Each structure stands twice: as structure tokens, then as C-alpha cells.
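If you are new to this repository, start here. Below is one unmodified record pulled from the training split, so you can see the exact layout before writing a loader.
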Amino acid sequence: MTAAGGIRFGHVGLNCVDVEATERFYSDFFGFGRDSEILLGDNRLVFISSGDVVFELFEAKGLPADNGDATGPTEPGFRHLALQVDDVAAVLAALGGEAEITQGPLDLSGYGLSAAIAWLRDPDGRILEIYQ
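And here is the target side for that same chain:
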């Protein structure tokens, strides 16, 4: 047992150019719903979730950073989010033109990995990997 005890994943905090657009994207295409909204001084935080996956959305105070190549930034730090879905093709079809597909879809089942995988950009330019 470590000093931290039993560890569980908490949430991911996302800086957003437009909190409503980001919330709508994840709600419409991935089934997220709003849990709460908190005002801390001049900071607005919106919590959304789908099952055990929780995002904390922050209003960005600056310009977006360079988001790197097709699968995410290549310098040290955060590369991409990954969500497991039931059907990659169905999600991509539902997205239509709402998101830029940066790579895929690919079938990686021959490598012992997921059967289908694709990378796309969310409304803030972050790379989102979806796989089944």
C-alpha cells in the first residue's frame, strides 16, 4: 500500500476558449451531462461527466497553444485525451463536419490493439483519440 492509499482517477481539467461550445461537443457526441457550475472569484468552472469520466471545464485566459501533430503535441506534457466508445465509425458519422479528423480511422486489431481507432480535434483544438 502506498501513502496515497487506493488511487482512483478523479477528473481532467480542460482550458476552453468557449466553455459552452466544448460542453456541447462532449454532450452531443459523447453523452456527457452537466454536473455542476462553480464560480470561484472570477473563475467559472463547469463539471461535466459521462459514466466515470469527468471533465472540469475552465474558461481560458489566454490564446490556444500549438497542438502538435495528428496525435497530439510532441514536447513533454499532455498529448491527447482518449475515450473508449462502442462504435468508432458511428461516432465519426455523427460528428460529420463538427470535428477535424487528424488521423484514421485505422484498424489496429492485427497488432493486438483496439479494432478501430481515430484521432480528431475538439472545439479547443485538443487531440481526442476515440477507440473501440
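Two things worth knowing about this chain: The chain has a mean pLDDT of 86. The longest strand covers residues 33-40.
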